[in-house]
Amino acid sequence: MRETSPAPTILTWVVGPLQTSIYAIACTRTNEAVLIDAGGQAQTVLKDLKDQELTLKAVWQTHAHIDHIAGLPEIAQASGVPVYMHPDDMPLYRAAPQQAQMFGFAALGDLPPIDHDLSDGQTLKVGDLQAEVLHVPGHSPGSVGFYFKELGLFFGGDVLFAGSIGRVDLPGSSIEQMRASLERLKQLPDATQVLPGHGPATTIGQEKRYNPFMQGF
Questions:
Q1: Is there a domain that residue 3 lies in?
Q2: Rounded to an integer, what distance in angstroms lies between the CA atom of residue 149 and that of residue 188?
Q3: Neighbours of 52 (CB within 10 A)
Q4: Closest Cα to residue 199, out of 169, 162, 154, 159?
């Protein structure tokens, strides 16, 4: 009989003026963790990881909007870990100072280089945990989600929310791409838990039943 792996450790912070949810997921055997989006409160995030005796190994960015990268300069500098992001969001990343001004964020420090490009279908690991990268554009050209199939978890950034979806009226967004991405997410098992970039957790099944945008728009 296959031995069941212990449940991962998941930490959640809600940060910044847009109440952005950022996450850390850690393997309980190795205590290795990744941060999913570095949206702010860098010192709090780093302290909480240390207090939990977790070793940060990487930052995985779902996309490059300012509320998801505002803490990245400080976190990358303090930890020295590599940063992963989809290359289609590089124009947004380079425009971070303009984004900060537009949305009322404090001026950023120097943005770190993106160490690794994410691509659709790519496998990422942290300790014993394994995630598949799903490229789900629409909210931004390079939006991705991280699907932990064995755990039934999907960290989706700003693609799908409880009862709603990410904005499609921003530079680089696309209604057509969002429709295609939502159709793709419908193929995940209904029990898959969605941990979004804003608001409460939900499930794919819940959103298929009650989210009007999953019915077509």
A1: no
A2: 9
A3: 13
A4: 162
The answer as to whether 4 is a domain residue is no
CA dist list (Å): 39 to 20, 66, 73, 103: 7, 8, 10, 14
Residue span of the structural domain in which 32 resides: 9-215
What are residue 124's DSSP bridge partners? 131
Span 76-127, pLDDT tens digits: 999 999 999 999 999 999 999 889 888 888 878 889 999 999 999 999 999 9
Sign of CA dihedral 5, 7, 11, 12: positive
Q: What stretches in the chain show pLDDT beneath 50?
A: 1-3
- For residue 23, give the nearest of 8, 40, 35 by alpha carbon: 35
What pTM was estimated for this model as a whole?
A: 0.95
Residue 157's alpha-carbon distances to 74, 160, 165, in angstroms, are: 21, 8, 10
Token couple for 99: 């984004």
Six token digits for residue 198: 């804003």
d(CA 26, CA 125) in angstroms, rounded, equals 10
Decide if 210 is inside a domain. Answer: yes
CATH number of the domain that 186 lies in? 3.60.15.10
Q: State the total domains in the chain.
A: 1
Do you know the residue count of the chain? 217
For residue 18, being part of any structural domain is answered with: yes
Q: Residue 143 — φ and ψ, nearest 5°?
A: -60, 135
